[in-house]
Amino acid sequence: MAELGKHLRTIQILSLLLLVFANTCYSKKKLIELDEDNWQDMLRGEWMVEFFAPWCPACKLLQPIWKDFASWSDDLGIYVGQVDVTTSPGLSGRFMVTALPTIFHIKDGVFRQYRGPRDKDEFMSFIEEKKWQALEEIPAWKSPSSIQMSIVAQFFKLSMFLRGVHTSLVEEYGIPHWGSYFIFAIATILIGAILGLILVCFVDFIYSVRTTPMPPEPVIKDMSLSGIEEEEDLIEDRKKGAESQSEDGNENAEEECASEGEGTEKEEEEAVAAAATASAGEIEENASGASGGEQSEPEMVGAPEESTDSSSPTVRKRRARKTD
């Protein structure tokens, strides 16, 4: 009986081990590993996907719960997957994963981020009660299947590649960190210079194609420095000619005015001389009459006063008329 009891205990232990092994294999089979090659499978059907990293403490705590939840995927009619961001950095950039762990619900290519409690019951109720319908969809411009997010994924891949190069330079080749950074700086400058040269050549090609109809050569010659200088010389000559003509006109006018002034002065002198000769003749006549007799004295006393008053204006006018 004792031996029979030992055999029964051995059988029970073996059966329990088989159940545990089968359960483990079943759960592993239901948990789908996603990477850069098969991530597009989640665009068909309904999925719950976890983004994790092996070094993340929160991810380690969630790992057994997530596997248990994956074992119910057939009953729930969904697929359960996970993405290791250390081996698939492009997917972390495509989904813009900024914290770990991050869980997404995908339904026929429509993405929603799960932000509820992280336990199996909540996960199951989230699917059974369709609580995901209350969540906001990720905008189309941030959709992981869009072109712009594909470009972002390539940048994430490049960053991880450069990080791997830095690690290999430091650990395998023994280069110090500052030496690795210096190498990256030189490489960045060289790549930037090459890309800048390519861009300049491309722009020059486009610009030359658009400006093929060049202006005619005669216009270019006229607009040269020699043509401009000739035009300036012509303008200066015209200005000088106009100034010389105006100066000649002014001189002629001054000469005419001077000649007119001289003529008037001569006429005035001639008039004064004629008046003087007339007054002298009258004085002589008066003197001759006085010598002829005393009877004529009363008459001559008044006569000289009238005739000798040559300073009055009336006398001057009469004399001037006579001379004329």
Automatic annotation (TrEMBL):
Q: How does it sit in the membrane?
A: Single-pass type I membrane protein
**Where do the TM regions start and end?**
181-207
Query: Which locations, inside or outside the cell, does it occupy?
Result: Endoplasmic reticulum membrane; Mitochondrion membrane; Secreted
Q: Which UniProt keywords apply?
A: Disulfide bond, Electron transport, Endoplasmic reticulum, Isomerase, Lipoprotein, Membrane, Mitochondrion, Palmitate, Phosphoprotein, Redox-active center, Secreted, Signal, Transmembrane, Transmembrane helix, Transport
Residue ranges annotated for the Thioredoxin domain, each copy included: 20-132
Q: Which CDD domains match?
A: PDI_a_TMX
Which PROSITE patterns does the annotation name?
A: THIOREDOXIN_1 (PS00194), THIOREDOXIN_2 (PS51352)
Asked if the keyword Mitochondrion belongs to this entry, the reply reads yes
Point to the regions of Acidic residues compositional bias: 245-259
The record, for Pfam families, names: Thioredoxin (PF00085)
Record's GO cellular component terms:
endoplasmic reticulum membrane; extracellular region; mitochondrial membrane
* Superkingdom of origin: Eukaryota
List compositional bias (Low complexity) regions by residue number: 272-281
Signal peptide location: 1-27
Q: Where is the composition biased (Basic residues)?
A: 315-324
Q: Which Gene3D superfamilies match?
A: Glutaredoxin
Residues annotated as region Disordered? 231-324
The answer on whether this UniProt entry bears the keyword Isomerase reads yes
Assembly and binders: Interacts with ATP2A2.
- Descriptive protein name: Thioredoxin-related transmembrane protein 1
Per the UniProt entry, what species is this protein from, by scientific name? Armadillidium nasatum
The lineage is:
Eukaryota, Metazoa, Ecdysozoa, Arthropoda, Crustacea
